[in-house]
Structures are given as C-alpha cells and as structure tokens.
Amino acid sequence: MDKLKLVEQTVVRDDIPEFNAGDTVNVHYRVREGEKERIQQYEGVVINERGSGANKTFIVRKMSGSVGVERIFPLYSPFIAKIDVKKRGRVRRSKLFYLRERRGKSARIREKDSINKNQNKDKE
C-alpha cells in the first residue's frame, strides 16, 4: 500500500490550480505531430471531475460552431502545459451533464463574483 502512494506522489503536480465543475478553463495541451510539438488551447466549461490521486480526470465542454465538443483530460498528464481558470461558475451540483441538452442562453452558468459586484454597486 505504501509503495502505491509513493508512486502516486511522484506523478502528482503542484502547479495545477484549484477548479471545480462550472468553471471556465483554458487547457494548454501539448500535441505531438510527427517530430514536432505544439501547444493547443482548449477553452470550455468543466462539467465533470472524477477519480482521485494520480487517476483524476476532468471533462471540458465547449461549443464549436453549433456543435458541442467534450474532451476528457487526465489532470496530472505530462501533456498538459498549464491550466488557466477564466471564470468561476456558480452551480449547485458537481456533475453538469444537463448542459448537453441545453443551447444558447439556457446553457449559461452564472459567475460566482457577479452577486458580490451587484451588491457593491448598490452600496455606492
């Protein structure tokens, strides 16, 4: 059991920011094409997190044209260059699979800070 934890600790990275379901993230992913390597950005909403430790994965959903595209990323993959959190979403559940059936305005997620901004404007 201790050997398993030891191996997991070598894989786990500390440069990955904290994010949850509902957050909009920009994943910088290394793509290898032949002998060349480039970084591809994938920006979308995190709809699912699963697993724990070195096996943790997350699903990012984005709209490409009018088609929804989802991609599963292993959190501690060496191909992930970095993850930027663009917006913090205010959601009431951890799995957002209901977004698959929604389009347009009904698929929007409120921002966490928008409530505080409105309250501060009323005070001024």
UniProtKB/TrEMBL annotation:
Gene3D superfamilies associated with the record: 2.30.30.790
GO molecular function: structural constituent of ribosome
Region feature Disordered, mapped onto this chain: 104-124
GO-annotated cellular components: cytosolic large ribosomal subunit
Pfam families, per the entry: Ribosomal_L19
Alphabetical list of InterPro entries matching this protein: Ribosomal_bL19, Ribosomal_bL19_CS, Ribosomal_bL19_sf, Translation_prot_SH3-like_sf
Superkingdom per UniProt: Bacteria
Compositional bias annotation for Basic and acidic residues: 108-124
Alphabetical UniProt keywords: Ribonucleoprotein, Ribosomal protein
GO BP term, example: translation
PROSITE patterns, sorted: RIBOSOMAL_L19
PANTHER family to which the protein is assigned, alphabetical: LARGE RIBOSOMAL SUBUNIT PROTEIN BL19M, RIBOSOMAL PROTEIN L19
Family: Belongs to the bacterial ribosomal protein bL19 family.
NCBIfam families given in the database record: rplS_bact
Free-text function comment from the UniProt entry: This protein is located at the 30S-50S ribosomal subunit interface and may play a role in the structure and function of the aminoacyl-tRNA binding site.
The protein's name: Large ribosomal subunit protein bL19
Native organism taxonomy: Bacteria, Pseudomonadati, Balneolota, Balneolia, Balneolales
Gene symbol of the encoding locus: rplS
